[in-house]
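2.7 Reproducibility. Because tokenized structures are sensitive to small changes in the input, we list the exact sequence used for Amine oxidase domain-containing protein, including any N-terminal residues retained from the expression construct. No trimming or masking was applied before prediction.
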Amino acid sequence: NGHVFLFCKIKGDAKDLGLPAHNLWYFNSYDIDEAFDKYYVDPVTHRPPTCYIGFPCTKDPTWPTRLPGISNAILISDGLYDWFEKWHGTQVHERGADYEIFKDQLAKHLLDILYETVPQVKERVEYWTLGTPLTEVSYLASFHAASYGTKCDTNIFKRLNDRWTTTPHTCIPGLYMAGSDAFLPAVCGAMYGGILGASAVLGYTGSLRLVFAFLSDFARSLQEENPKMSKIEAYVKALYKFGTEPVAN
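Resulting structure tokens (single pass, no recycling of outputs):
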């Protein structure tokens, strides 16, 4: 699926406004399936079921000196490519009044969510702009505005797709995939995809060095937890944990 992105400029320093440094998640219903069904049918009437809210200004230590008196927020929610398909092929900023009206209607929902979740920014948003699934197509050339990596369903494991998904290898010599595109979506998928990508680049010998480097670092952390443990004991314990607790590792 694609997404809609609301970018906001906010008047005031993040510290003075009390903006959170952590990310926020909004849910508008306990029945998420029903909420998505309603939203996908009529996104103008119904709010998006979920929304990510983040404040990049709180995560950048140089922000206050570079942009004093200004903060920002980004909201990300779901948006279907089908809603915007009739404007496919048009140029940015040249998609007509109907497109802009539709964007404003979607943005209003997100602004309402922002004001309800972080009420101190109400009346302080000086500028906002909404990115749509067509933004993904225009700037990232993604297929049908797909966001955040390969679509995750059982088709990615079919033999037909084994050259294109869940593998770090590509048909271009010297080009490897990593992260979620080399394995599965989400944080753990990106982590294992990074390991697969590194292993493909390093080869078998290099991959073994990578494993030993990890075990050595793991053993060192175990020794820090228990200084009485010898180096050999720590390495054996690290090897045991590595082999028996893969999820924790």
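The CA atoms of residues 15 and 21 lie 10 Å apart.
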